[in-house]
UniProtKB/TrEMBL annotation:
It holds the Pfam family HTH_18. Gene3D superfamilies: Homeodomain-like (1.10.10.60). It comes from Chitinophaga filiformis. The keyword Transcription applies. PROSITE patterns: HTH_ARAC_FAMILY_2. This is Helix-turn-helix transcriptional regulator. It comes from the Bacteria. Keywords: DNA-binding, Transcription, Transcription regulation. InterPro entries: Homeodomain-like_sf, HTH_AraC, Tscrpt_reg_AraC-type_HTH. The lineage of its organism: Bacteria, Pseudomonadati, Bacteroidota, Chitinophagia, Chitinophagales. Coiled coil: none annotated. Residues 203-309 form the HTH araC/xylS-type domain.
């Protein structure tokens, strides 16, 4: 393996200078892992006094950084001052300079696109929101997020030195976990760049609706039953939600809720031995009579008759 001095390595890592990753990796594994490595920044000696800002030079790798310590990141259009733990994503196309203002701690991992090659993970890096977004991927972290990020990096550290036969698959999973954590910190509009606000609201509504099902026990209950319940959860006015869903689906909020409730009622009547009263209670109806009226209005027959008919069909 080519020898690289600690000072040279420190300068290259700190300033983003070009670096052949093969110089950092044991021989014979480059093709297997597509170039991946992890570094504990605190273990790399850094001298920050009188260091000028280094101009951007072309990188050949992607990098995920957990930076802890005062520093500055300068992009073409802005300067970002870092004063708290921050998660930073950089790419071969990210023109910026980084200036540590004091000794840094934290972790970073570097990898090439081949590490998350489509034939391995189905991931095309530049198509991910974290890398497509016009927002700079620099995310100050809350305490709970700092712990999550540290835990992932620590798992990476332990895994890369292990003898586990599938450790690089595991490292890919940890890398994707960091990427998804970053994407969770992005603004909502950036996570759905190709969808209108109506489409996003509809998608969030349907997700809320479906998360209440299936019902696996009579003790499980549907808690969101009205259009207002969903509007409150989505932080929109109920009239706006109705307008959105009517335009995107052709149905009102109440009709969509009723349709999903009916679907679950039919499944429970066909596939469980729950009493009709138990089914009514789990689906959020105040009493048996209310449920029976709803079911007959929607299907034309009472729930008991529906169950009898399906049982006879199954028997036949």
């Amino acid at each position: 393996m080519k020898s690289v001095s600690m000072n040279e390595l420190d300068m290259r890592l700190a300033t983003g200078s070009p670096l052949e990753l093969s110089a950092l990796l044991p021989e014979g594994i480059q093709h297997e892992i597509g170039h991946f490595n992890i570094f504990n920044i605190a273990k790399i000696r850094q001298t920050v006094q009188n260091r000028p800002k280094e101009p951007y030079q072309c990188r050949t790798f992607y990098k995920i950084n957990l930076l802890q310590g005062h520093s500055e990141i300068e992009f073409a259009d802005s300067i970002i001052h870092l004063s708290q733990p921050t998660l930073v994503f950089t790419t071969p196309k990210s023109p910026f300079t980084w200036l540590p203002l004091e000794r840094q701690s934290g972790m970073c991992c570097v990898f090439t696109p081949e590490f998350l090659h489509p034939t391995r993970s189905g991931v095309v890096l530049d198509e991910l929101p974290i890398y497509k977004s016009p927002e700079h991927p620099v995310f100050p972290l809350q305490k709970t997020d700092v712990k999550k990020v540290k835990d992932i990096f620590e798992k990476m550290e332990a895994t890369i030195v292990s003898n586990y036969a599938y450790k690089y698959d595991l490292l890919r999973a940890y890398t994707l976990e960091l990427i998804h954590l970053g994407q969770q910190l992005q603004s909502t509009i950036m996570l759905h760049p190709n969808h209108s606000s109506f489409a996003r609201t509809t998608s969030l509504f349907i997700e809320l609706l479906e998360r209440q099902f299936p019902l696996e026990s009579p003790h499980q209950k549907v808690t969101l039953r009205t259009a207002k319940d969903y509007a409150d959860k989505l932080s929109v006015h109920v009239n706006h939600l109705n307008k959105v869903l009517k335009e995107t689906t052709g149905l009102t909020t109440s009709a969509l809720i009723a349709g999903r409730i009916l679907q679950e009622a039919q499944i429970l009547l066909r596939q469980t031995n729950w009493t009709i009263a138990q089914i009514a209670d789990s689906l959020g109806f105040s009493d048996f009579a209310h449920f029976a009226k709803f079911f007959k209005n929607e299907t034309g027959i009472p729930p008991g008759s529906y169950r009898s008919q399906t049982e006879s069909l199954n028997f036949t």
